[in-house]
Specification:
Layout (H helix, E strand, L loop, with lengths): L1 E5 L5 E4 L3 E5 L17 E9 L4 E7 L3 E8 L1 E6 L4 E5 L2 E6 L4 E7 L6 E8 L9 E6 L9 E6 L7 E2 L5 E7 L4 E5 L5 E9 L2 E3 L2 E3 L4 E5 L3 E6 L3 E9 L3
Parallel strand pairs: 13-14
Antiparallel strand pairs: 1-20, 2-3, 3-4, 4-11, 5-10, 6-9, 6-11, 7-8, 7-10, 9-12, 13-15, 15-22, 16-21, 17-20, 17-22, 18-19, 18-21
């Protein structure tokens, strides 16, 4: 089993006033040749947007873009005619495919919005753009893995054009669970949203990340009441 550890304070950081963003991987003005991606996981941004502010209309193509709000409400609009609100307890996916333009704003004028912006390199290019959004049913599987994304439209969660699976883990202190990879060619990037956890001998704190690959399974242990996002993705593209 191979691993790579990314401590929270080692991430890139940008402060634009209205936007504060931590970048796990190279993004915009943060460029680190040793932190370009984890397999097809290209972007993991931890964003905080000031009240009433946001990202104006801009284009994307040939990328699977996932947004997971952690606090507040995002307002999404795109060139496919979609207008939607997305809040904590929901997940949004947009397949940019042949090209799409969209904007994302903090819906509220009196509170910040915090969300994860995740980009996955797809296994199919030039697909028809699409949008989807679902409720995660937060906390439905306490001390277990709760699937929120997969490659299969009929499966639990949203789906994307890639051999990837995302799970949320909300564990009470001291609980542990073995994660079995769906594909031995994949790796898993573990990102601690809240509190602390442990994989093998590696302790993880809030917003720490750990990538693991060349293994079929590993055990995740909560060392306090924790919330963790696991992203299983192909290591080659």
């Amino acid at each position: 089993m191979k691993t790579v550890y990314h401590q929270a304070d080692s991430r890139g950081f940008a402060d634009h006033g209205w936007l504060k963003s931590h970048h796990t991987f190279s993004f915009a003005n943060y460029q680190n040749p040793e932190r370009m991606n984890f397999g097809v996981l290209r972007v993991l941004n931890d964003d905080q947007v000031a009240s009433g502010m946001g990202f104006g209309t801009h284009p994307h193509r040939d990328m699977e873009i996932i947004s997971i709000p952690l606090e507040g409400v995002l307002e999404h609009k795109d060139s496919m005619g979609t207008t939607a609100l997305i809040k904590k307890g929901e997940i949004q996916v947009m397949s940019a495919g042949t090209g799409v333009k969209h904007s994302e704003y903090n819906k509220n004028k009196d509170e910040i919005v915090k969300f994860l912006q995740i980009w996955i390199i797809p296994n199919q290019m030039n697909v028809e753009p699409r949008y989807d959004q679902i409720s995660i049913k937060e906390g439905e599987k306490l001390n277990d893995f709760q699937q929120i994304l997969s490659p299969n439209p009929e499966d639990e969660g949203v789906w994307i054009h890639q051999n990837a699976w995302f799970n949320l883990a909300k564990f009470d202190n001291g609980n542990s669970k073995e994660y079995q990879l769906h594909d031995p060619k994949n790796g898993v990037y573990i990102f601690v949203l809240k509190s602390s956890a442990k994989v093998g001998d590696q302790n993880l704190g809030t917003r720490d990340g750990l990538g693991t690959w060349e293994t079929n399974r590993f055990t995740l242990e909560a060392t306090s009441d924790s919330e963790i996002l696991l992203m299983e993705v192909p290591m080659e593209f």
